[in-house]
Every structure is written in structure tokens, then in C-alpha cells.
Write a structure and sequence with these properties.
The structure holds 2 protein chains of 2 kinds. Chain A is an alpha+beta fold. Helix content of chain A is about 35%, strand content about 10%. Chain A contains 8 helices and 7 strands, in the order ββαβββββααααααα. In chain B, helix 5 crosses helix 12. The model of chain B has no long low-confidence stretch (mean pLDDT about 95). In chain B, a hairpin with a 5-residue loop joins strand 7 and strand 8. In chain B, strands 5-2-1-9-17 form a 5-stranded parallel sheet. The chains are: A alpha+beta, B alpha+beta.
């Protein structure tokens, strides 16, 4: 396959970026999208040109490090798929593909397609945990948890923190990310003690980071590589109002 | 240093009492004094994150580093199948002693008994800790924790969270870590790569790293350094590791005097998606848990190209069930991998390249129903579909072995400290617990045992027992080290050749896989030892590293890691050459039983080989730690 690529190049956070044309001439349908970019980069490097910077690590869809906007869609056209698991058989010979970084005020561009997502870490730091020190935990079977509850918590806990939900949202809201963690912990008995304090602290942090609000568009759910449903956001909103009612601090 | 016998500092007494007794005998740091100690933790995987969080909880001042943009990306996240613990919740005869026994036997009697026993003891605390953090382990309908079986064991002791156990355990540790960041006990440094270890008066007192965003060379001083930087599987280029996994931190520590133990003990995982072409950047694992329900087979006839559904039952060879009736499809990884290779070598491999065997779920789907299979393995089947473009609910998966885990690593004593005072190594980066072969679901167990339950005690013992100079990052040793690092970076940027970094890495991987892979011979190892230095020479003559060092430069990062691999690969090969026996994942064709199983030579090789670096291209010095088996008597391992 031969493809035309339009890739966002930007030297650093303070400089202007632009789309640059590249040709990818020897693309096999079995390649993953990032392997296709590896091949383009290999060509650039051999000629002494700066490689296109993009993040990736596990390349099996679980670490959440990769993230590109492909033809306007975070992680590309396949549902429930990270861009590292998107394969070139999804495209046709002669296609033009536009590749851009996540765009959100809270995710400044570091270089080319790499953005700074440390804001998501700071949201977790604000309260996305159960406060237990190592050492004094009771037996794992001391508190039975209904299978359905545990499975629902796991559905939310599956979030990989890639930030696609933010990139897809016209408000650049981190609600889906945040609500996944809040749901996971508020569903389980272990998360009850800090339930209200957690939701308030995390939402306040998200506001401080410059993420927007939710206007129920559902774009986040559509692009989430782990298909985390927006019912999590509804749950978070309920938790939030309940927390304000009981004074969650 | 001339060859010495290494002292493992294993405490005296009966094996079941060693750790308890040691915990009492170790020195303590008083709670008010802990904050006066700074500890560097490099890495945020299961071992690193759990260590940093636990040390923070104790009140130490912790500096935690990772190369990714967030600590949650570490490659522990990709572990799928589960974590072992001797809880005996299934009432099927498990015990601490049985987990210990299985692990020592599974490691083909090349691990340190006392460490393994401690690991088995601590396994039960890990599950409790993770449940308390809110890790959503699988549960049965009564609400209690569920278990599955893994290779090398005849009991069900593996706890799991769907096919994402590593992710859930890592996020548990990450959340505990972020809680400490919130409290201010841990300071986090993301997108930093450790490029040197700094010694002052012979003790590990800090690190030098590169800020990957600004390119700045940064110096950090501390009272002790902990490396939890993972394994070196990507020396083979293609492996199941993340593309940024590397040996650099460990190797730079080795170049500063830490001994590297058993580098030739590498694990080839039997169930990976086969290689399709040159462009491939990594291989994807299909969890071992699939062997609970999947049956491995190849056609009985050589060169049988019929599609699998047209090969009748009596023309299929379920070779693992045939050869190992008591363990069947759940033999340990080294045995399963070698047998798959044997089938391919006999010309009975399947798929386009013939380098694959079938893993078939038809029987399980008929027995349990498709919904049960989907619930257990849905995400794995989905991943397989994405990559291989086939539906494993309908046709058998094609699988083949690939490099997955490295049992070798920096040498540590019972306290997880290297021969360099103050330098501690945890998780996959150390060598200690898995011998020559790791059993499935034991990596997560070891990483968390080291981080949550061992290092919090042993590091206090080291700190309380040491008198140290007051040292800041302005000390000459830091400046000298930073200069070395900068020189190396300048050297990489100044080659300005025309060969791609990836191209050279791929070539190194091919040398390693062909000659130091699943089976090794005197001749293949000598071939590799001739080719590696040559390739290293070519790298420094002709590599192209574009860009500058004052900003994010992924080519520069990658080139530095490949340069280290070009040195380290030689040590790995040399270790494989010197060990003229087969054990676990290290299979020397010259040393096998009549039916092709690995044949150990306990008389000559029952020791840990710990290598001292003496210079690039120079013969390293071998130090030995004799292995003493007081509990488990080494026998020919049998899974028949």
C-alpha cells in the first residue's frame, strides 16, 4: 500500500506547529498504525532528519501511552481500540491520513504528537485512591463482594488513562476519566470511607487543571478504547451532589 | 576484584523461621529519623511503585523516577493472567510450602531457597493488601475471591482480574503512590531516564539522569538507591516487552561495579501471536491462563496444509497431553516452548510460516458454553482478532514462543542489596527468585513482595547500620558522572552515519534469537560472540542519530539503549557459553536427556554466576554464589 500522510510537527510548546506532508510507500496491511510510523521514521533517521515524536510503550493497548488523532478521531476509526492496535488493513491504497496530537488546554504539546498529560495524574493525586497503608490489611475474603458489583467496578477500573475522552470532547472535559475511577472505588466497600471527599477533591482538581465541563455529547464514550460507558459520568454526578449534600470534605 | 565466593546473607535457622527471625534481628530507623533519609527509587512498575509508596508511608523522603509520561504506564501493566498466592481458598491442598516447592522446582533448582520461601510466605499478604486498595479481583457468586490454574502447579492458586491482572495491581500500587505524592513524602520525576549510578566512598549515593523533555542532565543525591527497572528482553528486539523497556539503568549500575547474575536465564513464553513480517515492533502475548481451557495441537502429518477444521480428530497430535499426561497443557513455560519449537522443527508447524502451533478452544466452548469463555478471556480473544485478523471462537489460535521475561538480573543478597552497599534491586531487575525458569503468575507476586513487604524492612536495616558522609549533588562524584553521561550523548550525536538505529537493533535481535534463543550450542554461541562486537563497531561507525540533545529526542534515547544492549548482549552470550548444562529456559543442545528434556549438571553448575564488568569487550570476572538446597532435593524435573 502507498499512503499520503499529513502529520502535525511542532518543535515545542512555545512554537507554532503545522501539518507536513509525508509519503509512506511500503505499507503492509498487517502493520499496526504505529509500525507504519516507525517505518516512516526509520527513513527520516537514515537521512539525518528529525524523527516524528510520538508516544507509545506496551503496543498492546493497555498502557495508555499512545494517542493520536487519526483523520479527526482519537485513536482512529476502529471502536474500542487504541491506535497501537489499529492495523493498516483498515485503510486503502492511496488514502490520505491526517495525524494530529490530542488537543486540549490541559494537555500542552511537548513536541510533534507528544502531549503532557500529567494533569490526569494530578487528578488521581487529589483523591483517586483508598487510603490504606501497607501492612494492616484484613484477609482478602473477610468482606464478600457480590460478583455483579465486582464486575461493574472492574468495567470502570479498566480505564487506561490515555486521555482520548478529553481529546474527543468539544469542552475538553476529563469527566469520563474521572468518573471511571470514582465509579470503581465508590462501588466497592473499600472505597466507602472516602467516597464523598474523593469525588469533591477530584472534580475540584479537574477544574483547576483547565478541563471543561460535560454537556452530555457522548463523544468520549464513542472513542474510549476500553468502551467505558458515560453512565459512569451520571454516577459521578450523583455522587457529587450527594457529597455536597453531606458536606464531603 | 578477583573471583570470590559471594555471601547471600541468608539468616540461619529453619527455613520457615528465617524471615521472622531476620525481621526481629534487623536494625530499625526510628520514626522521627526516617524523614531525614532520602531514598531514590528508579522505576514505577509493580516493584518500584509499591516500594516508593510503602517507603513514603513509613516516612522516608522518596524520589521516584520513570521514563514514561506517567508512573501508571510501566510495563507491569501488561501482565494479563494473574498473581499466585498460597491462600488455599480452594481447599485443594495448597500451602506456603507447596508454592515454595513448585517455584524452586519450576526454576529448575537454580534459585535461592530462602528467598523463594519468603516469597511464598508473603504471597498471602499481597492479596490482602491489594483487596484493601480496591483491586477488583474476580469473585465467585458467593462473593469470595476466585482462582484459576497456571502452568507448573496442580492447585488453583492464581488470583486474577479478567485478563488485566497486571493493570489492576499496578493501578492499585500507582494510586497508593499518588497518595504519598499528595502527602509530600514522595516526589515524582516522570520522563526521566537514569543514565548513571553515583558512588561515594564505595556506596550508592545517587543517580544522574536525563530530563527527556528538556534534555538537561540532572543529578540527585540520596542515602540509598533502589532500581526497579525491569528486564532486558528487548535485547532480542522482538519480545513481549514494551518498546521502551531496556537494560540501561541496570547496565550502567553494572558498569559501576554491581554484579550481573545469570544473564543467560531468559524466558521464552509459549503462547504469543506469531511473527508476520520485518516491520513488526513487538510480539503480543496471549496469557498462559488460556492453557486452562485451550488445547495445544499440531497435525500428525508433516506439511499438512489443510485448514484446522478439516483435520479430523485422529489426525491431530495433542502433543503436550500425550507427552505430559499429569500436567498436560499446563506444563511450565520452558517445556511448552521447547515442544512447540520441536514440532516446528519436525515440519509439523502450522500457518503460513510453519512457525506456529494451534491453541484450540472448541472443546471448552462445547463444554462450558461460549459465554463462559467470553467472560474469562474476552479481551484476549479481542486482541487476537485485532492482530491476527481471525476469530478464535471459530478457528483455533495460532501461537508460537517469544521472549517474555528475564530471570537473570543484578545480583542481590537476601536483603535485596547488591554487592555495592546501598544499591538495592527489586522485581524483574534482580535475579533472585525464579532460578532458570519463572512460573506463570509469579512475576507480579515477586514484584509486589519485594516492594510492599521486603524492602521496607531491609532498607531500614542498611540505613541504621551505616555511617555516611553528608553528600549533595554538588559532590565531585556527581560532576564526574554527569560529565561521563554528557560525553556519551555527544559521542552518539557525532557519529552522523547513515544506518538506522532500529535497523541495527533488529540485526542484534536476529543474532540473539538465532544463536542465543530457545536452544543454544557451543557453536551458535561462539558465532554470536563473533558477531556482536562487529555489530557494535558498525554502530559506532555508522549509526545516524538526528537532532540535538536540548529537547525531546526519541532517537537519542533509543540509540543510547541500543548502545548498551550491544555491550550487554555479549555478557548474556558469554554466560550462556560458560554454563555447559541445560536448565529451565537455558537449553544447551549438548546437555539433554534421551527424550529431549533439559539435563542439569548439578555437580558443576549448582551456583549463581555473577559477572563483574571489567571494560567493554574485555572478559568479565566470574564470581560464584553456591546454591545450597536444604529443603527441596534437586531431581530431574518431571511433569509427565
Amino acid at each position: 500500500m502507498r499512503l499520503k500522510l499529513k502529520i502535525w510537527r511542532q518543535a515545542g510548546p512555545g512554537t507554532a506547529g503545522r501539518l507536513v506532508d509525508y509519503a509512506a510507500d511500503h505499507v503492509s496491511p498487517d502493520m499496526s498504525f504505529l509500525e507504519m510510523l516507525d517505518v516512516v521514521n526509520e527513513g527520516l533517521v537514515k537521512q539525518g532528519h528529525d524523527a516524528i515524536a510520538f508516544d507509545s510503550d506496551c503496543r498492546e493497548g493497555i498502557c495508555g501511552m499512545c494517542g493520536l488523532v487519526v483523520n479527526g478521531i482519537p485513536h482512529g476509526p476502529d471502536r474500542g481500540t487504541t491506535v497501537c492496535q489499529l492495523h493498516m488493513r483498515r485503510f486503502r491504497d492511496g488514502d490520505t491520513i491526517v495525524i494530529e496530537p490530542w488537543r486540549a488546554r490541559a494537555f500542552p504539546v511537548v513536541k510533534d504528537l507528544v502531549v503532557d498529560r500529567s494533569a490526569l495524574d494530578r487528578i488521581i493525586t487529589a483523591g483517586g485512591y483508598v487510603s490504606v497503608n501497607c501492612g494492616g490489611a484484613p484477609d482478602g475474603n473477610a468482606i464478600p463482594i457480590a460478583k455483579e458489583v465486582s464486575e461493574t467496578a472492574m468495567d470502570s477500573a479498566a480505564c487506561i488513562g490515555c486521555g482520548a475522552c478529553v481529546a474527543a470532547c468539544k469542552n475538553a472535559s476529563a469527566h469520563l476519566f474521572m468518573s471511571a475511577k470514582i465509579s470503581h472505588l465508590s462501588l466497592l466497600p473499600q472505597g466507602q470511607i472516602e467516597r464523598y471527599r474523593r469525588v469533591v477533591a477530584m472534580i475540584e482538581q479537574a477544574d483547576a487543571e483547565g478541563f471543561g465541563s460535560c454537556s452530555n455529547e457522548g463523544e468520549c464514550e464513542a472513542v474510549c478504547p476500553k468502551e467505558i460507558p458515560i453512565s459512569n459520568i451520571a454516577r459521578m454526578t450523583r455522587e457529587y451532589f450527594r457529597a455536597l449534600w453531606v458536606g464531603g470534605r | 576484584m578477583s573471583p570470590t565466593k559471594l555471601d547471600s546473607n541468608v539468616p540461619a535457622g529453619p527455613i520457615a523461621e528465617k524471615w521472622d527471625r531476620h525481621r526481629f534481628e534487623m536494625k530499625l530507623v526510628n520514626p522521627a529519623n526516617k524523614r531525614k533519609y532520602t531514598i531514590i527509587v528508579v522505576g514505577t512498575g509493580l516493584a518500584g511503585a509499591s516500594a516508593a509508596a510503602s517507603l513514603g508511608e513509613l516516612g522516608y523522603n522518596v524520589l521516584n523516577f520513570c521514563i514514561q509520561d506517567s508512573p501508571r504506564r510501566a510495563h507491569s501493566i501488561a501482565a494479563q493472567g494473574g498473581i499466585n498466592a498460597a491462600k488455599n481458598y480452594q481447599n485443594d491442598g495448597d500451602s506456603v510450602y507447596r508454592l515454595f516447592y513448585d517455584t524452586v522446582k519450576g526454576g529448575d533448582y537454580r534459585s535461592r531457597e530462602a528467598n523463594v520461601y519468603r516469597l511464598a510466605q508473603l504471597s498471602v499478604n499481597i492479596i490482602d493488601q491489594c483487596v484493601a486498595q480496591g483491586v477488583p479481583f474476580a469473585r465467585d457468586y458467593g462473593g469470595l475471591l476466585d482462582n484459576r490454574s497456571f502452568g507448573g502447579a496442580q492447585v488453583s492458586r492464581t488470583f486474577y482480574a479478567r485478563g488485566q491482572t497486571g493493570q489492576q495491581l499496578l493501578l492499585g500500587a500507582y494510586q497508593s503512590l499518588m497518595r504519598q505524592v499528595h502527602k509530600g513524602t514522595v516526589r515524582l520525576f516522570a520522563r526521566r531516564e537514569m543514565l548513571d549510578l553515583v558512588l561515594v566512598e564505595g556506596r550508592a549515593r545517587g543517580i544522574v539522569c536525563r530530563n527527556l523533555v528538556t534534555g538537561e542532565i540532572e543529578r540527585y543525591a540520596a542515602h540509598a538507591v533502589i532500581l526497579a527497572t525491569g528486564g532486558y528482553g528487548t535485547v532480542y528486539y522482538l519480545s513481549t516487552n514494551a518498546v521502551n523497556s531496556n537494560v540501561t539503568a541496570s547496565w550502567r549500575a553494572a558498569k559501576r561495579g554491581a554484579l550481573f547474575a545469570n544473564p543467560c536465564f531468559t524466558q521464552i513464553h509459549p503462547t504469543c501471536i506469531p511473527v508476520t513480517g520485518d516491520h513488526q515492533s513487538k510480539l503480543t502475548l496471549m496469557s498462559e491462563s488460556l492453557r486452562n481451557d485451550g488445547r495445544v495441537w499440531v497435525p500428525k502429518k508433516k506439511g499438512d496444509t489443510r485448514p484446522p477444521d478439516q483435520i479430523p480428530e485422529d489426525e491431530r497430535d495433542y502433543y503436550l497431553e500425550r507427552k505430559y499426561p499429569s500436567f498436560g497443557n499446563l506444563v511450565p513455560r520452558d517445556v511448552a516452548s521447547r515442544n512447540a519449537k520441536q514440532m516446528a522443527d519436525e515440519g509439523r508447524g502450522v500457518g503460513e510460516t510453519g512457525l506456529a502451533v494451534y491453541l484450540d478452544f472448541q472443546d471448552a466452548i462445547q463444554r462450558l458454553g461460549i459465554d463462559v469463555i467470553r467472560e474469562k478471556y474476552g479481551n484476549l480473544f479481542h486482541m487476537y482478532k485485532k492482530i491476527a485478523d481471525e476469530d478464535a471462537y471459530k478457528v483455533p489460535m495460532r501461537i508460537y514462543p517469544a521472549i517474555h521475561y528475564t530471570m537473570g538480573g543484578l545480583w542481590v543478597d537476601y536483603n535485596l542489596m547488591t554487592n555495592v552497599p546501598g544499591l538495592h534491586v527489586l522485581g524483574e531487575a534482580n535475579f533472585s527468585d525464579h532460578g532458570a525458569n519463572r512460573l506463570g503468575a509469579s512475576a507480579l507476586m515477586q514484584g509486589l513482595a519485594d516492594g510492599y513487604f521486603v524492602i521496607p524492612y531491609t532498607i531500614g536495616h542498611y540505613l541504621a547500620g551505616s555511617t555516611m558522609l553528608k553528600v549533595t549533588s554538588e559532590h565531585d562524584a556527581f560532576k564526574e558522572s554527569a560529565n561521563c553521561v554528557q560525553k556519551n550523548i555527544n559521542r552518539l550525536l557525532s557519529v552522523k552515519g547513515n544506518r538506522g538505529i532500529r535497523e541495527i537493533h533488529r540485526e542484534l535481535g536476529r543474532i540473539m534469537w538465532d544463536n542465543v534463543g530457545m536452544s543454544r550450542t557451543e557453536q551458535s554461541l561462539r558465532t554470536a560472540l563473533a558477531q556482536i562486537p562487529k555489530l557494535r563497531g558498525e554502530f559506532w561507525q555508522s549509526v545516524s542519530v538526528p537532532g540535538t540533545d536540548d529537547n525531546l529526542n526519541q532517537s537519542l534515547e533509543y540509540a543510547g539503549r541500543v548502545a548498551d544492549y550491544l555491550e550487554f548482549a555479549e555478557l548474556l552470550t558469554l554466560d550462556a557459553l560458560h554454563r555447559r548444562e541445560s536448565c529451565g529456559g537455558h537449553f544447551r543442545e549438548e546437555s539433554q536427556t534421551a527424550d529431549g528434556e533439559a539435563l542439569r549438571d548439578d555437580e558443576h553448575y549448582s551456583y549463581v554466576a555473577a559477572w563483574e564488568f571489567t571494560g567493554v569487550g574485555r572478559e568479565p570476572v566470574l564470581h560464584k554464589e553456591p546454591l545450597v538446597f536444604e529443603e527441596v532435593h534437586p531431581t530431574q524435573r518431571s511433569y509427565k
